[in-house]
Amino acid sequence: MIRLLDVVLSITGLVVGMPLMVVIACVGLIDTGSPFFRQVRVGRGGKPFVLIKFRTMSRNTESVASHLVASSAVTPFGHFLRRSKLDELPQLWNVLKGEMSLVGPRPCLFSQQQLIDERERWGVLRARPGITGLAQINNIDMSTPFVLAKTDAEMLESLSLKSYLKYIFLTVLGKGAGDRVRR
């Protein structure tokens, strides 16, 4: 049922959001010269996939976890995209392709070995990574691998249609700060 909802909601989001995404891409092109950001992330079963988002940082920013990046790397338009969570819209394509779910653990980088190990230990890597979830709406980011993996496991263990819709609804309403960037 959740995969069906992922497909229906991602198609709906891509169709309805297309005009907004075109505007964001045009502004992003002016802002950074490259509106989209692609990065290899850890997917279901530990397999790699290419995550796509709107670019929020300058193009020469090192490819590391957000909490390791200086806030000066984030452009003014990028700050807006992060606060509004609009930078996540292109991930609807990842959801449609089956690489992600709307709700699940945020996909990490392969360089985040401590988080990968914790997620393996808690069984989190068996699930599709997601755009949002329990950790995101509670401001738990990748800087605390044990807490994040434990929270992801708790979410997956109790995930129901009601909680799936709740996490999406709270995210759309602006709950959670998204991926933190150090100050």
UniProtKB/TrEMBL annotation:
<keyword id="KW-0812">Transmembrane</keyword>
<protein>
    <submittedName>
        <fullName>Sugar transferase</fullName>
        <ecNumber>2.7.8.-</ecNumber>
    </submittedName>
</protein>
<feature type="transmembrane region" description="Helical">
    <location>
        <begin position="7"/>
        <end position="30"/>
    </location>
</feature>
<dbReference type="InterPro" id="IPR003362">
    <property type="entry name" value="Bact_transf"/>
</dbReference>
<dbReference type="Pfam" id="PF02397">
    <property type="entry name" value="Bac_transf"/>
</dbReference>
<keyword id="KW-1133">Transmembrane helix</keyword>
<comment type="similarity">
    <text>Belongs to the bacterial sugar transferase family.</text>
</comment>
<feature type="domain" description="Bacterial sugar transferase">
    <location>
        <begin position="3"/>
        <end position="172"/>
    </location>
</feature>
<dbReference type="GO" id="GO:0016780">
    <property type="term" value="F:phosphotransferase activity, for other substituted phosphate groups"/>
</dbReference>
<keyword id="KW-0472">Membrane</keyword>
<keyword id="KW-0808">Transferase</keyword>
